[in-house]
């Protein structure tokens, strides 16, 4: 860009910004477009200009993902509406390439009922009703008098020179230009570290039934491995770095009943996520299982029936279970050693062990200690009632948010003794706690990693990455296992199936959580040089488990303070 053309651009930008700063851009075509904070959900009935930002001005660290949301409403329908970005550029000619930006529409999904036991002022939207969540490809079919939004995400490269960058979003339908929205992106010197320290897992499944139902490919086919690779790249892009790994699906006995195992699928699975940059830890699936929370426990073992290898569940006190696990875990241990993966392998024993299950937890954990020496165990636990068996045999405690308020002394002692503590969400918490549910404000989702930093936890776990019913966008509250009540909206999944592209589509909740992960990493970086300031910022965001910043504008103030502090030499 020449100096003359740059000057013309800046004058044009200033003029347009002046015209649009007091309200939504519009034209004779009837479409109106305006910026809305990406922490604010846009609903179909939102009036023109609702929750509009005074100007399109955003601030970012380097290596950060910046979310920009544009609301659209029109008195007439538009078919094939799309958007493009004019790459942000500074006065010296440095530009953030368009390839660093993605532009998607925010799809509406059905929420049938509000999260139980949650005060009205802790919720957003009306239930039953349409809620924004899925991030889908353009073009958008814009109905008349129904507000939609477009989600622009810009990844600022880590080597971007600090400064003010000017760009624009153009909205069009076919050959018709509908809106031109200039924006300014202030890039600060702070840089999100490339190496991630927060452990993040959203449990998911690509088992044969689900893969055939949603993607049309059987497990372990070429198409399935292509799907796995695409999912791995999605996880890497969203900083999910702990991968639940289904042992009994990926590891199979070799023919002849020799007691040896074929690890080829296990290796390909791990290497696929590893090469995508999505693997910090291999998360071995649970050895003790139950079909639902109150069902009897079982341990899956391999059995030869009719010339085929099948799995069957045996009671945990069966002698055959001990014999099987001795051989299976020994083979796994040798294989992990040979591949150099033992230090990054975690082993689940039983999810949420309780009541009469505790002795069995100890029995199976003892076998893990014996045959997988040096491997850490990890499980969801009840922090209010931790029996000695679980205290001794579970290395990484993962208590449920909302159920350890009065157990913080114990958890702090655990952390101070050098043991990592993560936390998890599953159906709960509800009420005044933070969570990633669809009828909760997005600020609550953004703060989940802040809570990790605030309380010195080092990981986040959620059970529901992709547990869909046949129509995920119309059924966000499935009934699973032996439950009779609907799950809270969005608890079962945070991604959506994209059969056409053989991948997962993200959601505004996932992108907001990603932004929170990057906040966490910036806080950790700031802590090294200015621990007091990092702690002050975390405390200003989260005073307690139910007392935290709830307003998007108030959060942005804290965010700007974090960016400024992290930018100081």
Major beta-sheet overview: 5 strands, antiparallel
Mean pLDDT: 94
Q: Report strand %.
A: 25-35%
What gyration radius follows from the Cα positions, in whole Å?
25 Å
Tally of helical segments: 14
Describe the global form: globular
Query: What percentage of residues falls in helices of 4 or more residues?
Result: 25-40%
Low-confidence stretches: 1-23
Q: Within the largest sheet, what's the order of strands?
A: 1-3-8-5-6
End-to-end gap: 32 Å
Summary, kept brief:
The chain is an alpha/beta fold.
Keywords:
disordered N terminus; 26% strand; 25 strands; 5-stranded mixed β-sheet; 569 residues; 5-stranded antiparallel β-sheet; alpha/beta; globular
Describe the structure.
This protein is α/β, with parallel strands linked by helices and 569 residues long. The strands form seven sheets. It has a five-stranded antiparallel sheet with strand order 1-3-8-5-6, with helices on one face. 42% of the residues are buried. Strand 19, helix 7 and strand 20 form a beta-alpha-beta unit. It has 14 helices and 25 strands. The two termini are 32 Å apart. The N terminus is likely disordered.
Write the layout of secondary structure elements.
Layout: H1 3-20, E1 31-36, E2 57-62, E3 65-74, E4 78-89, E5 101-111, E6 129-136, E7 140-142, E8 148-155, E9 163-173, E10 176-191, E11 199-202, H2 208-215, H3 222-237, E12 242-245, H4 247-250, E13 252-253, E14 261-262, H5 264-276, E15 281-284, E16 288-289, E17 298-305, E18 308-314, H6 319-339, E19 345-347, H7 358-371, E20 376-381, H8 388-393, E21 396-399, H9 408-416, E22 423-425, H10 442-446, H11 448-454, E23 459-462, E24 496-498, E25 503-505, H12 508-529, H13 531-541, H14 552-567
Parallel strand pairs: 2-10, 11-23, 12-15, 15-19, 19-20, 20-21, 22-23
Antiparallel strand pairs: 1-3, 3-8, 4-7, 4-9, 5-6, 5-8, 9-10, 13-14, 16-17, 17-18, 24-25
Helix pairs in contact: 3-5, 6-7, 11-12, 11-13, 12-13, 12-14, 13-14
């Amino acid at each position: 860009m020449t100096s003359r053309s740059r000057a013309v651009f800046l004058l044009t930008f200033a003029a347009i910004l002046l015209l649009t700063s007091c309200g939504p851009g519009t034209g004779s075509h009837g479409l109106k477009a305006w910026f809305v904070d990406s922490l604010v959900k846009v609903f179909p009935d939102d009036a023109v200009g609702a929750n509009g930002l005074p100007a399109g001005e955003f601030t970012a660290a380097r290596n950060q993902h910046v979310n920009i949301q544009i609301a659209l409403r029109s008195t007439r329908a538009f078919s094939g509406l799309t958007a493009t970005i004019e790459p942000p550029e500074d006065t010296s000619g440095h530009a953030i390439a368009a390839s660093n930006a993605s532009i998607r529409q925010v799809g509406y999904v059905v929420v049938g009922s509000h999260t139980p036991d949650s005060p009205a002022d802790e919720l957003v939207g009306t239930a039953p009703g349409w809620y924004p969540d899925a991030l889908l490809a353009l073009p958008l079919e814009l109905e008349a008098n129904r507000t939609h939004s477009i989600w622009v995400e810009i990844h600022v490269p880590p080597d971007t020179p600090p400064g003010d960058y000017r760009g624009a979003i153009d909205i069009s339908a076919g050959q018709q230009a509908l809106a031109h929205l200039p924006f300014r992106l202030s890039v600060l010197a702070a840089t999100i570290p490339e190496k991630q320290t927060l452990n993040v897992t959203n449990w998911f499944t690509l088992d044969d039934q689900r893969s055939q139902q949603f993607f049309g490919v059987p497990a372990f086919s070429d198409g399935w491995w292509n799907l796995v690779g695409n999912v791995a790249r999605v996880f890497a892009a969203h900083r999910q770095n702990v991968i639940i790994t289904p042992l009994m699906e990926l590891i199979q006995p070799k023919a002849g009943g020799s007691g040896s195992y074929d690890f080829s699928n296990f290796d390909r699975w791990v290497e696929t996520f590893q090469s995508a940059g999505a693997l910090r830890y291999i998360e071995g699936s649970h050895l003790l299982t139950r079909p639902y929370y109150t069902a009897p426990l079982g341990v899956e073992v391999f059995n030869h029936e009719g010339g085929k290898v099948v799995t069957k569940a045996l009671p945990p006190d069966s002698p055959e279970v001990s014999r099987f696990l001795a051989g299976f875990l020994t083979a796994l241990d040798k294989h992990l050693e040979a591949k150099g993966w033992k230090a990054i392998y975690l082993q689940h024993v039983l999810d949420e062990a309780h009541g009469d299950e505790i002795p069995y937890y100890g029995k199976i954990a003892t076998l893990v200690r014996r045959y997988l020496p040096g491997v850490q165990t990890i499980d969801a636990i009840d922090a209010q009632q931790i029996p000695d068996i679980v205290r001794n045999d579970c290395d990484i405690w993962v208590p449920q948010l909302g159920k350890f308020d009065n157990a913080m002394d114990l958890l702090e002692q655990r952390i101070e003794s050098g043991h990592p503590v993560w936390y998890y969400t599953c159906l709960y918490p509800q009420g005044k706690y933070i969570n990633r549910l669809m009828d909760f404000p997005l600020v609550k989702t953004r703060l989940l990693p802040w809570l990790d930093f605030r309380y010195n936890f080092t990981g986040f776990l959620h059970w529901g990455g992709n547990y869909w019913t046949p129509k995920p966008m119309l059924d966000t509250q499935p009934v699973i296992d032996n439950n009779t009540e609907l799950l809270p909206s969005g608890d079962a999944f945070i991604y959506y199936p994209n059969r056409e592209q053989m991948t997962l589509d993200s959601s505004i909740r996932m992108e907001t959580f990603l932004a929170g992960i990057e906040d966490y990493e910036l806080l950790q970086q700031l802590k090294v040089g200015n621990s007091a300031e990092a702690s002050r910022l975390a405390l200003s965001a989260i005073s307690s488990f139910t007392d935290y910043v709830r307003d998007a504008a108030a959060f942005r103030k804290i965010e700007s303070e974090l960016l400024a502090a992290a930018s100081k030499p």
